[in-house]
């Protein structure tokens, strides 16, 4: 009986953390370097997850709204752009099928070059979300920060086919292939090109 009681006592103490260190908990840091309280958006190859749920290019608006919540508004003379203001996210539909989502754009910083463009001029108006994305953002295992420089992340993409910052265009682009699936990534930049911070990060299947 004494042996049984001793064993029970040892098991109880072990359960309370005695006799060993508790496992470490990994703390995810968001774009501003603080522990994450917002959503988690992860890009791995050609796969996208939002808080662990798949967010697939080519799915319907309803599919996206089941993951992101209902879009706050749509903005375009002919429709086709849906904005999630509080998330700092917008989605574009295909031209050939307005219910199918072809592009996911994440707003990381306000681009001063958009100040003269009516579509972007004011947060919460046009296609500009009222808020910037404020959560955890990861590309192929590499977490991004709001001050991340383009050249630091050009080589982070796996299965990359190309990476190009076009002269005269405020855009860097890359194409990714995973099996038979292609994805195109567009990075909004300023005149510093590869030394620019990332303003908007867009992922597209480029299907019309």
If you had to describe this structure to a student in words, what would you say it looks like?
The structure is a single chain. The protein contains three helices and 13 strands, in the order αβββαββββββαββββ. An eight-stranded antiparallel beta sheet has the order 4-5-6-7-13-12-11-10, with helices on one face. Strands 3-2-1-8-9 form a five-stranded mixed beta sheet, with no helix packed on it. Mean pLDDT is 81; it is low at 1-23. It has one domain. By secondary structure, the protein is α+β, with helices and mostly antiparallel strands.
Number of domains: 1
Number of strands: 13
Oligomerization status of the protein chains: single chain
- Encode the helix/strand succession as letters: HEEEHEEEEEEHEEEE
Distance between the termini: 76 Å
Per the principal axes of the C-alpha atoms, what is the gross shape? globular
Determine the fraction of residues in helical runs and give it as a percent range. Answer: 10-25%
- Strand sequence of the main sheet, in spatial order? 4-5-6-7-13-12-11-10
Low-confidence stretches: 1-23
Which features would summarize this protein structure in a list?
208 residues; globular; alpha+beta; 12% helix
């Amino acid at each position: 009986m004494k042996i049984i009681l001793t064993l029970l006592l040892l098991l109880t103490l072990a359960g309370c953390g005695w006799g060993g260190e508790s496992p470490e908990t990994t703390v995810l840091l968001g774009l501003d370097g603080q522990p994450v309280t917002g959503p988690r958006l992860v890009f791995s190859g050609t796969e996208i997850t939002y808080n662990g749920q798949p967010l697939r290019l080519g799915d319907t608006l309803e599919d996206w709204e089941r993951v992101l919540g209902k879009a706050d508004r749509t903005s375009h003379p002919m429709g086709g752009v849906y904005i999630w203001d509080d998330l700092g996210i917008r989605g574009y539909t295909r031209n050939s099928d307005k219910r199918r989502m072809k592009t996911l754009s994440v707003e990381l910083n306000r681009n001063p070059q958009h100040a003269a463009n009516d579509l972007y001029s004011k947060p919460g108006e046009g296609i500009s979300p009222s808020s910037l994305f404020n959560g955890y953002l990861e590309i192929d295992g590499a977490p991004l920060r709001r001050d991340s420089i383009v050249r630091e992340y050009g080589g982070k993409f796996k299965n990359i086919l190309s990476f190009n910052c076009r002269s005269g265009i405020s855009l860097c682009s890359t194409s990714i292939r995973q099996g038979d699936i292609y994805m195109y990534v567009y990075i909004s930049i300023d005149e510093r090109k590869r030394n620019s911070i990332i303003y908007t990060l867009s992922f597209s299947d480029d299907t019309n």
